[in-house]
Amino acid sequence: MTRAVRTRTGARPALAAALVLTLLAGGFAAWTGQAWYAAAHDDSAAYAAERDRALAAGEQAVQNLNTLDHRQTDRGLDLWESSTTGELHRQLVDGREEFEGQVKAAKTVTTARVLAGAVTELDDRAGRARLLVALRVTVTTPDRKSTDKDSRMLGELTRTDGQWKLSGLGQAPVGGTATG
Fold first, then answer.
1. pLDDT in tens, the chain (180 residues)
2. Backbone torsions φ then ψ of 175, nearest 5 degrees
3. Cα atoms found within 13 Å of the Cα of residue 17, Cβ hemisphere only
4. Beta-bridge mates of residue 155
5. Residue among 148, 159, 75, 77 nearest 115 (CA)
6. What is the dihedral of CA 10, 15, 20, 21, to 10 degrees?
7. Quick one: which of 49, 57, 47, 44 has its CA closest to 159?
8. What is the DSSP letter of 35?
């Protein structure tokens, strides 16, 4: 009988340890689940996703507006117009015929490749953003000579119908120049 009592008392510390470990595991699972839920429903994650969407759309639009083939001007200029909104869009539409004539006369092919880009401002509620894009533009002339030019562009984006489009575009000032 003494032996049975010892076995029971020997089992109690193991049972207590198992109970403590179970409680710790349950607490840890609850804590990580709450942390995951908070992260998944955090506004900063949605803001970062919107920033990434604006950047991708802005980079593509800047690339589109710096790419044009004289053999496919209608297609290229249609792409320019679909990438823009607001005053920039109106300027492109109003000057389309004249610009198309200039490109066809020059017989050039211009291609752009984005090297880097960053959203510098984002007002998600107002649907406005600004970005800086570095790109390399290659111009090929009719005699098949090509030249590369690296440039930095500042763009303004406006969200229309759930899509980010360029509403302004210009050259970024080169370092060493005072502004203001």
1. 555 545 555 568 888 888 888 988 888 888 888 888 877 777 788 899 999 999 999 999 999 999 999 999 999 999 999 999 999 999 999 999 999 999 999 999 999 999 999 999 999 999 999 999 999 999 999 999 999 999 999 999 999 999 999 999 999 987 765 554
2. -50, 150
3. 5
4. 131, 169
5. 148
6. 110
7. 57
8. H
